[in-house]
Design goal:
Length: about 475
């Protein structure tokens, strides 16, 4: 059995241990790139399934765009190339010869998709265009950590074009809210929503809206972003249309995305010393059944109940662990490590009494459940576990949030112990730069105005910001 590092004393090592022990990832020959194993990929598939349905229901269509992008495309938008340049992977040689123009391995698809938009948009009648793509991207990562920061990662990226700025703003906020509802409602992770500062926003965007979550070690993790690009990229790629007054105009653009980083977030947010605890909505197995028997007679008696259990739980993803090479105790450990929400144990006596022993992965509580109550009890326990997971995560995040005054006072605490600090800011970039002395950043600007003065210079605060160290 794999022993996990102490989650309270060595959180990052615990995280490294659990992602390998639970067979979520494996190493690859390329630094910063990881193999996502079937159990880990199944988590992404359920995230993808849910969000793909919501994306389509909100009027977007899926498409696929090339992996390789001409280098000249990246250079067209000045802020964009400056922001991504250190992370680019570039192809210079192909087909047995040096390329006339270098090709960039997709770091994000704004440039190539906007090239297509310029071909598709001619009139206001062609708008809006609402496109989504499920793909992988490459951003060369100096300090990789599986799921959290990798050189290649999987995501969805939405790209839209609109007739007016108001429509684009509405779109950016619509998708931001879709993300918030999914992350809080399905992944059960509480988030803090705000707008990125000029230095932290997406390269080339007018505004970036983001969701931040505080992990148990007090570091912030960006959960997803929605960008109001407005007309910067439209002008760079000469996307024009004839408006309703028969004048030539530029559309207003957006882009938005979530990534496999969400898997890392749910591992960190919900896991414990035994391993993963998976939110029921995305758990590949929601209920695992452990048969317990010693003789062939006992085995027959237990197996005779399978059909009833399968029928009663037909609405759930279930798995019956019939591996005769493992003891029941080893199976318990195996599925606790993998975070299955509910475990049902059934032995000879249970079969005769027409009951199972139900174990809740979060609370560890056990109870005998008669067959005729099984469906209702599983429904109740799944809902209870989901509610308890969110409440636990919310209470922890609240315990890690503080009100910060002067940076010289809270900076050393934040650097040593972590935590998120809501503090005032005058919006001066020079003050924002001071955070780096404490390995911290502005995570997002908030709509609140709880602080009266800037965390550094002491001038009047324009708005509150969330400040934290980050992954």
């Amino acid at each position: 059995m794999n022993k996990l590092a102490d989650i309270n004393n060595d959180f990052l090592q615990w995280y490294q241990d659990i992602i390998y022990a639970a067979e979520l990832v494996d190493d690859s020959p390329v630094r910063g790139c990881y193999v996502i194993r079937p159990y880990g990929w199944a988590l992404w598939e359920f995230i993808q399934k849910y969000m793909d349905e919501r994306i389509k229901q909100t009027g977007h269509q899926n498409a696929a765009f090339p992996l390789l992008i001409p280098e000249s495309f990246i250079k067209r938008e000045a802020e964009h190339v400056e922001g991504f340049s250190p992370q680019l992977a570039v192809v210079t040689y192909a087909g047995g010869k040096e390329l006339e123009e270098k090709l960039v391995v997709r770091p994000t698809s704004e440039t190539t998709i906007h090239h297509s938009f310029a071909r598709w948009v001619k009139s206001w009648r062609d708008l809006p265009i609402k496109i989504n793509q499920w793909a992988s991207v490459v951003r060369w990562e100096m300090r990789p950590r599986p799921f959290l920061r990798t050189s290649e990662f999987f995501w969805q990226e939405g790209h839209t074009a609109h007739e007016t700025l108001e429509q684009a703003q509405e779109e950016a906020l619509l998708m931001l809210n879709e993300y918030v509802e999914f992350i809080q409602g399905q992944l059960l992770i509480p988030v803090i929503v705000g707008k990125k500062t000029e230095s932290e926003k997406f390269a080339g965007a007018d505004h970036t809206f983001a969701m931040e979550a505080l992990m148990p070690d007090g570091r912030a993790l960006q959960m997803g972003t929605s960008h109001l690009l407005s007309q910067n990229f439209a002008k760079a790629f000469n996307i024009t249309f004839q408006d309703r007054q028969k004048e030539i105009a530029y559309p207003h653009l957006t882009s938005w995305g979530i990534t496999t980083r969400l898997i890392g977030a749910l591992i960190m947010t919900h896991g414990d010393q035994k391993g993963l605890i998976l939110p029921p909505a995305v758990a590949p197995i929601q209920v695992v059944i452990i048969p317990i028997y010693k003789t062939s007679e006992e085995m027959a008696a237990v197996k005779a109940q399978y059909d009833f259990i399968k029928t009663a739980l037909s609405g759930y993803r279930i798995f019956i662990d019939e591996d005769d090479q493992k003891t029941p105790g080893a199976k318990f450990y195996h599925w606790e490590l993998r975070g299955v929400p509910l475990r049902l144990e059934i032995g000879m006596r249970d079969a005769q009494a027409r009951q199972v022993v139900m174990v809740n992965r979060l609370s560890g509580n056990k109870k005998n459940v008669p067959f005729d109550q099984l469906a209702d009890e599983v429904d109740d326990q799944i809902q209870l576990l989901a509610n308890d997971l969110f409440v636990r995560a919310q209470k922890r995040q609240e315990s890690l949030l503080f009100v910060g005054g002067k940076l010289t006072d809270f900076g050393p605490i934040m650097q040593d112990q972590g935590g998120g600090f809501i503090t005032g800011w005058c919006q001066s970039p020079a003050c924002e730069q001071e955070l780096k002395k404490y390995s911290a950043f502005t995570r997002c600007m908030l709509d609140t105005h709880r602080a009266s003065s800037c965390f550094h210079c002491g001038k009047s605060s324009v708005q509150d910001v969330l400040v934290a160290k980050a992954y």
